[in-house]
């Protein structure tokens, strides 16, 4: 990966120059092929694609300091979706295996403008499976990513060539069987190289970049501590305080591609976790009403579509993988 300064931020890219540039065209063709391959894989594995809601009375409480956007819904305060998580769990009342490609709006803090990894509007490929545990869902994620990358590499050699992306970079990935380490091990590894990673929090941006740069293949970080994640990540029955969740980190310094977990579906536990994380359960009425009457146990994940595209296309920054990029704080179309 090149660490050159991205082409233009913090100024907004000129839409005509951006959309008509050969590099953008190749990047968006790669994105299109990744999505087509995901649909093909998931549909043939029995998944139903759902259309994701864009607004609702409540959304994912968010993380890492991003703010939600309110809208006026006939006198009621609604939110733009920061993630589809609540609807993914609810959708399992209709089908056991679902996916969607959902737009997310998060007003990320201004200091994320130069991480090369943050947009204020982005998309997730969201997958949820009733009855799945972490082993099954990470296995599915591995197979899905391998299929998406292989199909894209095989279909678009001219675009990889134009972008100067050497497809040999995917040799390890295409073997499947990604690396795995616990959050505690990742923290120890970072502290050993002098990075002051907080053991009770998400891996910070610098820590994530450090681990990712050293890796030759994608790897999972598992078992994040309670408090670092939302109320919907299930707590381990055998290790209290540890969550049955995971992130998938790309090699070559590209950082986090995906987060997922086994879900909490027990009403009392969800309410307790909401209170622990400072959420008011009253706000989540529609969701809690469904949970009280029962939603399936499940596991799932959300892949950042622009993040995955950026990695596969080998671009300098995530905004280059979006046709109409919205960078935090940058006024743009
Ligand atoms: P999260 O729920 O925060 O883990 O988000 C799920 C996935 O969406 C992450 O693993 C990233 O791939 C992607 N993502 C999260 N925030 C952003 C952002 N601000 N810009 C682009 N992609 C993001
Ligand atoms: Mg995450």
Features:
three-stranded antiparallel sheet; binds magnesium ion; binds adenosine monophosphate; alpha+beta; eight-stranded mixed sheet; disordered N terminus; 18% strand; 35% helix; globular
Could you give a quick summary of the protein structure above?
The protein is an alpha+beta fold. It has helices at residues 15-20, 22-44, 85-91, 134-155, 157-163, 171-174, 183-192, 205-214, 267-276, 285-293, 305-313, and strands at 48-49, 55-56, 70-73, 76-80, 97-105, 121-130, 179-182, 219-222, 245-250, 255-262, 298-304. 35% of the residues lie in helices and 18% in strands.
**CATH topology label:** BirA Bifunctional Protein, domain 2
From the N-terminal CA to the C-terminal CA, the straight-line distance is: 28 Å
The description of the largest β-sheet is: 8 strands, mixed
Tally of DSSP β-strands:
11
What structural class is derived from the secondary structure elements? alpha+beta
The shape is globular
Roughly how many Å is the radius of gyration?
19 Å
Order of helices and strands: HHEEEEHEEHHHEHHEEEHHEH
Low-pLDDT ranges = 1-9
Beta-strand content estimate:
15-25%
Q: What hetero molecules are in the model?
A: adenosine monophosphate, magnesium ion
Q: What CATH architecture label applies?
A: 2-Layer Sandwich
- The CATH homologous superfamily corresponds to Bira Bifunctional Protein, Domain 2
What does this structure look like?
This protein has helices at residues 15-20, 22-44, 85-91, 134-155, 157-163, 171-174, 183-192, 205-214, 267-276, 285-293, 305-313, and strands at 48-49, 55-56, 70-73, 76-80, 97-105, 121-130, 179-182, 219-222, 245-250, 255-262, 298-304. Helices cover 35% and strands 18% of the residues. It is built from eleven helices and eleven strands. A hairpin with a 2-residue loop joins strand 3 and strand 4 (76-80). The longest helix has 23 residues, at 22-44. It has one domain (15-321): 2-Layer Sandwich (BirA Bifunctional Protein, domain 2), CATH 3.30.930. The chain is globular. The protein is α+β, with helices and mostly antiparallel strands.
